[in-house]
Design goal:
The chain has about 170 residues and is mostly helical. The chain contains 6 helices and no strands. The protein is globular.
Length: about 170
């Protein structure tokens, strides 16, 4: 069920005729400004997040295949979804969005974190290659999180405040 919700949200960010697309187009410019990317970065941010969610959808289903790469991807999929959802929770809260939007993102974050832990525990023995891949991916996620935090501290607060002062056309 959660993979269907992820795919619905992802396609809402990517496909112009989708019922969620107008809301997503309006939501991302202030979010991009919040993270110091400028309001023009909203479209790029929306497309990147949508593509990440589509990739996550695919990775969630890798658990049905055999081999180290598929095992790693089946764990990375939920971890990536939790990472994106945690960013969405923070963004919703910092932008003053309604709690139902932040709550939905928090629910996705919790479920995907749970999926990651369950998939990690379900593998009898992780190969050294698979563990190395997981370490690299985890370090990459932490690095990206730190970069966004720095962007927010250095540029995001002021850019978002300026964005809020500009009247919308």
């Amino acid at each position: 069920v959660i993979s269907v919700l992820l795919l619905f949200a992802a396609t809402g960010k990517l496909i112009p005729g989708h019922p969620l697309n107008p809301e997503m187009k309006d939501a991302f410019p202030p979010w991009a400004a919040l993270w110091g990317l400028g309001s023009a970065g909203g479209t790029c941010m929306r497309l990147v997040v949508g593509l990440l969610e589509v990739c996550t959808f695919g990775m969630l289903h890798c658990m049905w295949f055999k081999g180290d790469t598929f095992v790693v991807l089946s764990a990375v999929g939920p971890a990536l979804a939790a990472f994106v959802a945690s960013g969405a929770v923070v963004t919703h809260l910092l932008c003053g969005d309604t709690l139902d939007k932040a709550g939905f993102a928090a629910m996705v974050c919790f479920i995907m974190s749970d999926q990651f832990v369950l998939r990690y525990l379900s593998v009898d023995e992780w190969s050294p290659q698979a563990m190395e891949q997981l370490k690299i991916i985890a370090a990459s996620c932490v690095s990206i999180g730190v970069i966004f935090l720095i962007l927010w501290v250095v540029r995001g607060k002021a850019a978002y405040a300026a964005y809020q002062r500009v009247p919308s056309s």
